[in-house]
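Help!! Second protein's tokens look totally different from the first
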Amino acid sequence: MDKTTQRTRVQLDFTQRTMNQLKRLQDRLDASSRAEVIRKALNHLDAIVSLIDEGAKISVKRPGTDKWIFIEFPLLNK
């Protein structure tokens, strides 16, 4: 097994609320495992942090409106 496919087991302690979130996301994303949800979440968080580090602002547009909402991530600021 080369370094790109080598895996390390991680144990996480979650509250019931967090486990419910994880299950809801697993169902919504049609993920095969909870680990897949966490890997996807880490990839998305990494991309968001990279954009913020570059000075980017992140916004979303609600369907059916012309209104853009800027999303703040205060915990991600340096």
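Here's the second one for comparison:
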Amino acid sequence: MPSKEIPDYFPLDWRFGTDGIRGSVETYMNPLFLVKLGWAAGKIFKETGLGNSVLIGKDTRISGYMIESALESGFISA
């Protein structure tokens, strides 16, 4: 997909990997995006039969609690 078609809320400098999602909380890693991410992942997990449980790992930074809650909301709504 050409970069001009990528929505503004999806940052091009994010890294998805074995250590999770890395990105700036102050700009793009906001609750709305994280809810959408949790919802999308939850839909895929359901459709592929990967189970009904998800483990969310986080560190002790303040932003971790926001990230956790937003992802939980997305998974629950899926």
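Reply: Different proteins will give different token patterns, so don't panic. Strands lie at 15-17, 20-22.
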